[in-house]
Design brief:
The structure is a homodimer of 249-residue chains.
Chain A: H1 3-17, E1 18-32, E2 35-43, E3 50-51, E4 54-58, H2 63-75, E5 81-88, E6 112-120, E7 133-140, H3 151-165, E8 180-181, H4 182-193, H5 199-208, E9 212-218, E10 228-232, H6 234-243
Parallel strand pairs in A: 1-6
Antiparallel strand pairs in A: 1-2, 1-4, 2-3, 2-7, 5-6, 8-10, 9-10
Chain lengths: 249, 249
């Protein structure tokens, strides 16, 4: 069955269960082999029609729970750290995508979409396709495929938000293995920021945040002096996630 | 006429013109006599029922334009710098406020509210009451009156967002007179942050942002050495507002 027919069939049920006019789009970032990835779905029958995983909020459901539910369905992962970052409400945001759909059909409504972003452990995720999609894959943020509607703009804005977040909140837990070296953590920051950082400055600034515990052992293997291993101190990490870093002004 | 009767009378018209389930709440900050103020309206007949200025978005209106319209109605000020900062969607966010309203009445719907905050020139604003309110006043953020629904939580979150913004965006244009001294700018930051700052550090950090132009003259009067006057370089200020400061990581 074609995408359009599937969606039309679902219309009544969607009206019964969800708040009209409000949708959710999720930008799910993962880190793998020194590159930043984002989880995309390809809409059924759309060759270059990749989309962000998304959905709607139940009439008696809070938005964060709805976003959790949507992501769990798509990834199998639970307890994902999700953050709303912006509302997308341009009048032409879906373009012509639903232009041949019947008037009054659920998908043909005007939707104001709330963007969430998530940082996940790449290895926790098993991408799942649903009845609307024929692919669900991790894509490199540096070489993205064509995307439907305003989803590319939503993704770009999530990336800007993530970069900004590096200035006032910790990032890295879930993206890195439990134990990591300072160069590995620096690499993650460099990938997110899209630029190189000075090694000494990075070390000093990161240590000043007081969220790392140095481990006893060192990373084995390799010709050079084995680098020290660190873990995030999860208690202080969570505190900083909630309140922001104490530095700044 | 009582508030409830006025609102019930408006229900049909509101359904015709606005998107259901979505509202807008505005937190308008101004700076006056070394204190941070917020613009509040008192809902008609509610003794301790102060609220944020708010409203709805037209069926063919973008949200930012709707927020602009709402604020212009309430303040007479145009071209206000407005920033959406969060969606508020708790199931019990309005509490019992509309519990005696007829089922299906516009205001008795579940609303997901988008919070905007604005920084305005206190002197540009002429608070205006509407048919729902019997007062519209600037209140000091340090001594707020009782507020309806979840409006106090929305205000608190806006203040946290504004504080955070000091770490990556310029603040001060519109809040300060065109020419100001470094101590006056520092005072503004201290009021927003609710804490004292070191004078030397403040000066160095602020100059590094490269958004100030030192003026020829000095502030006259006073016994001490007259302090230098500065202006924001609006071109670089706007650039920093758009892209964030170049420092940070």
């Amino acid at each position: 069955m074609e995408l359009k027919d599937i969606l039309i069939q679902r219309s009544t049920e969607l009206y019964q269960n969800y708040l009209p006019h409000i949708s959710i789009d999720c930008v799910v970032f993962g880190f793998h082999e020194a590159s930043l990835k984002v989880l995309l779905v390809r809409m059924k029958g759309q060759e270059d029609g990749w989309a962000l995983p998304g959905g709607y909020m139940g009439k008696d459901e809070v938005m964060k729970k709805a976003a959790d539910r949507i992501l769990t369905e798509r990834t199998g992962a639970t307890n994902i750290y999700l953050q709303q970052f912006r509302v997308f409400d341009e009048l032409d945001r879906v373009g012509d995508f639903f232009k041949d759909y019947p008037h009054g059909q659920w998908h043909a409504q005007r939707f104001v979409s709330v963007g969430f972003y998530a940082l996940v452990d790449y290895t926790d995720v098993t991408p799942v396709i649903d009845e609307y999609s024929d692919a669900c894959e991790w894509m490199d943020v540096d070489s993205l495929p064509g995307m439907v509607m305003d989803h590319r703009a939503i993704l770009d804005k999530a990336l800007i938000t993530l970069r900004r977040q590096l200035n006032y909140k910790p990032v890295g837990n879930k993206l890195l293995p439990e134990e990591f070296t300072m160069p590995e953590l620096q690499k993650l920051y460099e990938i997110i920021l899209g630029k190189s950082l000075n090694r000494g400055n990075f070390y000093r600034k990161m240590m000043a945040y007081n969220i790392l515990d140095k481990q006893e052992g060192t990373r084995k293997g390799g010709a050079h002096k084995a680098p020290n291993l660190y873990k995030f101190n999860l208690e202080r990490y969570k505190e900083a996630l909630k309140d922001g870093f104490k530095e700044g002004w």
